[in-house]
Amino acid sequence: MSVTLHPSFCLYVAAAIFCIGAYGVLARNNALVVLMSLEVMLNAVNIVIVTLGRVFLAGRPADAGAPHVFVLIVLAVAAAEAAVGLSILLAVFRRYKTTQTNLMDELKG
After folding, report:
1. To the nearest whole number, what is the mean pLDDT of the chain?
2. Which one, 4, 75, 76, 84, has least CB within 10 Å?
3. For 28-65, where are the alpha helices, taking DSSP H only?
4. What are the residue boundaries of the structural domains of the chain, listed by start?
5. Strand pairing partners for 30?
6. What is the pLDDT of residues 28-60, one digit of tens each?
7. What is the pLDDT at residue 65?
8. In this structure, how many other beta carbons lie within 10 angstroms of the beta carbon of residue 100?
9. What phi and psi values does residue 6 have, to the nearest 5 degrees?
10. Which residues, including other chains, have CB under 8 Å from residue 103's CB and lie 6 or more apart?
11. Exposed, middle or buried by CB within 10 Å (0-12, 13-18, 19+), for 67?
């Protein structure tokens, strides 16, 4: 049995997930939570890409894989961002002994 979701439902879910991630980036001081919130926001973007790809490329089987390629690119960028972000966070933690972003005032320009 196949269940088909309406595209507007998927876009509403993606918007809600993106807002949750944006709240985590803007309201939290812990750098690790900020990185996780960025990952949540990227996952919301992936939902939008797949949803719009299914809507606009529904009748074309030759282009049906294009949104999935973009999602793989976004996932690769997210993995690279997580690796680089965690390594920077580890270096900052060794220097300042904290992950609280409001206590790292030497980083301000």
Report:
1. 87
2. 4
3. 31-56
4. 7-99
5. 100
6. 888 889 999 999 999 999 999 989 888 888 777
7. 77
8. 11
9. -70, 140
10. 96
11. buried
Q: What is the pLDDT of residue 21?
A: 96
Task: List own/partner pairs for 37-45 with CB under 8 A and 24 or more apart.
Answer: 38/81, 38/85, 39/78, 39/81, 39/82, 41/17, 42/74, 42/75, 42/77, 42/78, 42/81, 43/17, 43/78, 44/14, 44/15, 44/17, 44/18, 45/14, 45/18, 45/74
Q: 7-99 has which fold?
A: Helix Hairpins (1.10.287)
pTM above 0.85, yes or no: no
Is the pLDDT at 76 greater than 70, yes or no? yes
For residue 81 the two structure tokens come to 């961002």
pLDDT tier for residue 80 given thresholds of 50, 70 and 90: very high
Tokens standing for 7?
């595209």
